[in-house]
Design brief:
By secondary structure, the chain is an alpha/beta fold. The protein has twelve helices and ten strands. The relative contact order is 0.21. Belongs to the thiolase-like superfamily. Thiolase family.
Length: 385
Amino acid sequence: MAEAYIIDALRTPVGKRGGGLAAAHPADLGAHVLEALMARTGVDPAAVDDVVFGCLDAVGPQAGDIARTSWLAAGLPEEVPGVTVDRQCGSSQQAVHFAAQAVLSGTQDLVVAGGTQNMSMIPIAFASRRAAEPLGLTEGPFAGSEGWRARYGDQPVDQFHGAELIADKWGISRTEMEEYALRSHRRAVRAADEGRFTRELVPYGDVTADEGPRRDTSAAKMAALAPVVPGGRLTAAVSSQVSDGAAALLLASERAVRDHGLTPRARVHHLSVRGEDPVRMLSAPIPATAHALKKTGLGIDAIDLVEINEAFAPVVLAWLEETGADPARVNVNGGAIALGHPLGATGCRLMTTLLHELERTGGRYGLQTMCEGGGQANVTVIERL
C-alpha cells in the first residue's frame, strides 16, 4: 500500500494584527518558510512536483495564485508549479490533503503543502464583500441566490452567529468560554517559555516568537469585555485572533524517501472532510471526527494529541462534549485564541505544531480538525514514526 510521509514542517511566528508581520507581503511570508523548508530537508527544489497553498481573500497581494508567487519569491526553480486552495479556514489543511492524495495516488512524489495570510493587510471577508462593491455587489456571496434562499431562507450566514448558535445548542455559558480562553493563553505562554515551539519556528526579521499570547490576561479582564453582538455571549476574548503568518510541510512518497535519502517523521494515516449545517457553520468538526474515527477504527482514546482550531471557544467545548476526548490531550500548547488564526495558514500551522508535539511527548497518533465556512471540517490523522 502506498504511503504519504511528512518529511518536515515549519512555520513563521504568528504575528498579531498590526504587529511585526503586518507590513510583510504575504508572498514573502510564504517564500520565507518555503526557503527554510528546502534548506532544512536538503531536497533539490527542482524535484518538487507541485506547491499547494491555502489562502483566503485572494485580492491585491494575495491574488494571482500566491502558491506560485511565494515559490518564485523564494528564488526557487521556475519549472515547479503552484496552486492556491480556498476551503475557508481549512484551506491549508486541505492543501495537506491534496498533497498527500497526489503522493498516495502515485502521480507525484514530492509535494509541498502550505499556506500564507496577512490579515493586517487584507481584512477578513474582504474578497466576499468589500472587493465587489465597485461592481455594485454589496450583500455578500449568498444574496440573490434563489436556490440558497429556497433552502436556507434569509438566516444570517456569519461566523459570530454560528458560534452563538453552538453556545445555545450545547448550553455553554460565557464563564465556561472565558475559562477555556484563559487556559489557552496559559498553555501557549508555558509552551513558549519551555521552548516547545523553537524547532518549528523560522523567525521573520525581528519577529522571533508568536505575538498573540497574553501573559497579563485574567478572568476579570475577560469578564469586563462587551459582547461582540449585543445580548450575546461571545467576546473578543473567546474568539480567535486576527493574525499574519505562513507555514509549510514537505510530503514524500516511499520512492522519494529512498531516492533523496530522506527520513520521514510521520505518515498520513487518514484524510477526510465532511459537511453539515452551513448556517450554524462551525460545528462540523463533531460529525467529521466521528466519521474519521469510524473509518480508521480508532477510538478517541487512541488519539494521543488533538489540534482543533479555536475559531471560538464554544467550537472546542461542544466538540469535547460530543467526542468525550480528554481535554488534557487537546490543544496542549494553546490554540488560535492565544496563538492567532492567520486564516489560510492555520491548517499547516496546526499540523506543524502537532507533529513537533507528538515527537516531544512520544505520542503515536495525532488528530487535527477545524471548522470551516460553509459548515465543513477537515480531519487529518498522522502517525509519528
